[in-house]
Amino acid sequence: MAKKETKRKAFNFLRSYFDVLNELDKDKDRLEFLLAIINKQFLNEDPVDLNFVSNLCYESQRHQIETSVKGYEDKTGNKLGESSELKGALIGPSQGGEQGPSVQEEEKEEEEEKGQVQQVFVHRSFDHLSLSIEEHKNLVNEFGSAEVEEILDQIENFKGNKKYKSLYLTVKNWIKKKKTTNQNEKRTTNTPRRDKVINDFFRIPGE
Question: The pTM is what?
Fold first, then answer.
């Protein structure tokens, strides 16, 4: 088998990939699903000839996977899947052939690699904020998955999120404030009804 080359050093293996993987019973389906993710992330190759179950699982994660690939290409300027032979041919013999990366380029790649490896342990990140898998697990255990993801979306779209330092604490505070607000609104809504019942009870006939 010919060796597949890629410039990408790592990618963010999301918790959702892991959750879908654990829903598969057969090792063959698991392997197909994993290889489809890996080949897309490192080579930008769309999966072909997947069986029904593996294809269904991949399609459920397609948006996340393609977003990751596009983010890498936009950030680095590297197009995944382009062969080194083709790039060498475009340089031409008069330019002295392919040259090795400079020290600065190597250092930049090392930094990017470290950052991408660290992202493996991150459930979600945006701007300067990030939430680790462990922190996300704690939040879900306390508040529920739907509540946590809804608040994360709201914080990500909040223009003033740059003032926050901890995404974990911000999520907890937002959920608690939301619950307090809902309780106050419910209390305010119920008060007029209770007052009306009391007033009707003590009302003098004929008033």
Answer: 0.43
